[in-house]
């Protein structure tokens, strides 16, 4: 099966990268299933918030296609700035993490499972950004 | 300003404490129990997994991804995947991740002295050229994806790594960009 990474990179069936990725079929399956679980699952975070955070994390990683992919479904809510501030810390300075950062999210109305969803989402987009960058290098080199 | 680096890095087994409420195991649904069992042998007593299982389907898929990337057959050696994971964890500042994967690297016949120096001194510590190439690529891709270049890939090929192996190293780095961020921002390492 194809995943979001194949789509964003335009990996053609039968191409060198397609054959390389086919060596790890479970990566494709669970990357795509993670997409569905994170962006379509029920959550206290709205879908537009989730896509807005993903777009932002993709932009922080300079992954334009990934950012554009989420921009289509992104939207603002009053608490979005709090979510984006957390995304900046996780993406750029994860060593600055503190319990106070989690408390700030809960003060903005996030339940513990929403904190988990937000963290998984940000971590997932950071995963995708590195996979995309590495695959591009393997394609070019 | 305090940093998660300040805890220090060790190959000794560490504990981990959550900063947000975790699921009480006796309240877990059959599906949550199943996801915990699929995720890790000790997940049912681990605050980390009991926290993450509150989004059960997300954890289920992430665990499948983690397990195929770190333990899947063929491709890059388990030691090389663990080296990439530990180097990135050292740079990001995740002492818990670094200790677990330093141990696995040694179990997979990786050089224990090299790993102890990497933990104590950092990723710039001296090492053979092949490991150096893996660590340099992992650190660049891990810190800022666009910092890794074609010459990093060519250097890995020059040490005999196939593209399938380089993809596995890439996947390990990508997975630990994820794992470090969860582990070091949802709680903290503790000394037993």
UniProtKB/TrEMBL annotation, chain A:
Tell me which SUPFAM superfamilies the record gives. AhpD-like
User: What InterPro entries would the database entry show?
Assistant: AhpD-like
Superkingdom of the organism of origin: Bacteria
Q: What is this protein called?
A: CMD domain protein
Taxonomic placement: Bacteria, Pseudomonadati, Pseudomonadota, Alphaproteobacteria, Acetobacterales
TrEMBL record, chain B:
Could you tell me the superkingdom of the organism this chain comes from? Bacteria
Tell me yes or no: is Nucleus among this UniProt entry's keywords.
Answer: no
Every copy of the Carboxymuconolactone decarboxylase-like domain together lies at 57-113
Keywords noted in UniProt: Oxidoreductase, Peroxidase
The GO molecular function terms of this record are: peroxidase activity
Pfam families, alphabetically? CMD
Q: What is this protein called?
A: Peroxidase-related enzyme
- The protein's organism comes out as Roseococcus pinisoli
């Amino acid at each position: 099966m194809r995943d979001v990474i194949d789509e964003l990179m335009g990996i053609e069936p039968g191409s060198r990268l397609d054959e390389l990725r086919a060596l790890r079929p479970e990566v494709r399956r669970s990357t795509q299933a993670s997409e569905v679980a994170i962006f379509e699952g029920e959550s206290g975070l709205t879908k537009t918030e989730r896509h807005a955070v993903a777009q932002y994390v993709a932009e922080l990683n300079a992954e334009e296609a990934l950012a554009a992919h989420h921009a289509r479904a992104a939207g603002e809510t009053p608490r979005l700035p709090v979510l984006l501030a957390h995304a900046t810390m996780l993406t750029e300075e994860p060593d600055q993490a503190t319990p106070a950062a989690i408390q700030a999210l809960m003060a903005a109305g996030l339940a513990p499972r929403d904190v988990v969803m937000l963290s998984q989402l940000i971590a997932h987009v950071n995963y995708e950004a590195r996979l995309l960058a590495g695959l591009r290098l393997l394609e070019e080199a | 300003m305090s940093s998660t680096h300040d805890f220090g890095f060790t190959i000794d087994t560490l504990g981990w404490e959550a900063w947000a409420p975790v699921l009480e195991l006796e309240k877990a649904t059959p599906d949550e129990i199943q996801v915990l069992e699929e995720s890790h042998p000790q997940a049912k007593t681990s605050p980390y997994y009991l926290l993450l299982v509150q989004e059960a389907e997300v954890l289920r898929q992430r665990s499948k991804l983690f397990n195929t990337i770190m333990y899947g057959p063929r491709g890059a050696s388990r030691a090389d995947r663990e080296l990439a994971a530990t180097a990135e964890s050292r740079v990001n500042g995740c002492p818990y991740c670094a200790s677990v994967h330093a141990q696995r690297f040694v179990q997979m016949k990786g050089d224990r002295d090299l790993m102890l120096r990497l933990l104590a001194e950092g990723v710039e510590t001296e090492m053979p050229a092949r490991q150096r190439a893996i660590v340099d690529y992992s650190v660049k891709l891990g810190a800022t994806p666009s910092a890794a270049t074609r010459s990093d890939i060519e250097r890995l090929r020059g040490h005999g790594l196939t593209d399938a192996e380089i993809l596995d190293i890439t996947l390990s780095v990508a997975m630990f960009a994820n794992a470090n961020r969860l582990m070091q921002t949802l709680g903290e390492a503790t000394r037993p």
